[in-house]
Design brief:
mainly alpha; 16 helices; 338 residues; 0% strand
């Protein structure tokens, strides 16, 4: 029994770390993806499953949603860091981009901050949906219907909240047995084949503007130019591909412990902090130099370095007071230095 628990923990930590690396890597690709077809293929490929897989895993760990104090815990661990970092990023952008004024807006998330705000809403919605019939069908119906609303935009991250909620909800209903099923050798082989075929399809068959559907931050009218009826059909098709890609990715995640496994517990830190590094780098000549000299492999190398650095113990200790509102790790580090 103890061995099974260890493997399960290693599995999810491995998945989290690989996913947060893909988040950072995807953001590194973003500024120059238009300049190289294969780079755009990698970008679309990653965005098909990396956030859905993160969201699915987040939903899986919500089994205590009906317990007393559940939402209070979510507000403390997710909403408070959102408010803190939304504020910090507002000042950071003011200084970085030499803006004339500081705009404090907690209702329109900065860049990657949308995930935290949506995570709060997903947990609130979950408390309602677990009490009704056919919750997943209803959630998918809402996810499709919301795309027809033209002015929802990024306000409170509502569009992404409703579009990705079915993934979060499905994660809640998954069991340990379900994950054991997808880790069978036959499923792993089939999943690997599917991912390879999907990658090739993105390069040779699917147009680049598929990214607008994958990001799920625009209405059908914004993507198609008009509010076409078939926007919902495309969304349904995207759900099918998204679920297949997500489970295929999760099927190839290793179960044993690696040198990076422990970093899987620190994904929130990496997620919140990598924006400071990347937004600064976006203001430099780094990406134009990479593009000019075709040093695209540097994007991968830099993503690995930044991810590992932000997962390091000194960074975690320094950032803990802002993210967890605790000084435990920093005090421990300071005591070691005395």
């Amino acid at each position: 029994m103890a061995t099974e628990v260890k493997e399960r923990d290693y599995y999810f930590d491995n998945a989290r770390f690989i996913l947060i690396f893909l988040v950072v890597f995807g953001h590194f690709i973003s500024p120059i993806k238009d300049q190289n077809d294969w780079l755009y293929t990698v970008y679309n490929f990653i965005y098909t499953f990396h956030m859905p897989a993160f969201i699915l895993i987040s939903g899986f760990f919500t089994k205590g949603v009906l317990k007393d104090g559940y939402l209070s815990k979510i507000f403390r661990k997710v909403l408070v860091p959102y408010i803190v970092f939304q504020l910090i990023y507002s000042f950071y952008y003011y200084d970085l981009y030499d803006k004339s004024e500081i705009k404090l807006n907690f209702f329109d998330p900065h860049w990657a901050m949308w995930f935290l705000l949506s995570l709060v809403f997903w947990n609130i919605l979950l408390k309602v949906f677990v009490k009704i019939k056919y919750p997943l069908i209803l959630a998918i119906g809402i996810g499709v219907a919301v795309g027809y609303i033209t002015d929802i935009g990024t306000y409170l991250s509502l569009l992404r909240t409703f579009v990705f909620f079915p993934v979060f909800l499905l994660g809640h209903y998954l069991t340990k047995r379900d994950f054991k099923q997808i880790l069978k050798p036959s499923v792993r082989i089939g999943s690997s084949v599917f991912l390879v075929l999907m990658f090739l399809a993105y390069h040779f068959l699917i147009p680049d503007h598929a990214k607008d559907w994958l990001l799920s931050s625009s209405s059908y009218a914004e993507i198609l130019g008009h509010n076409e009826w078939y926007g919902g059909v495309i969304r349904l098709g995207l759900y099918a591909v998204m679920f297949l890609a997500t489970f295929s990715f999760l099927a190839i995640i290793p179960k044993r412990k690696f040198f990076f496994t422990e970093f899987g517990e620190r994904t929130l830190y990496i997620y919140l902090l990598h924006g400071f590094v990347l937004k600064y780098l976006f203001t430099t000549d780094l990406f134009s130099s990479i593009e000019k000299n075709n040093y695209y492999v540097m994007l991968l190398v830099l993503a690995v370095i930044i991810t590992m650095f932000l997962a390091s113990k000194p960074v975690i200790a320094l950032a803990q007071p802002l993210i967890e509102l605790r000084w435990t790790k920093l005090n421990r580090m300071l005591r070691k230095d005395e």
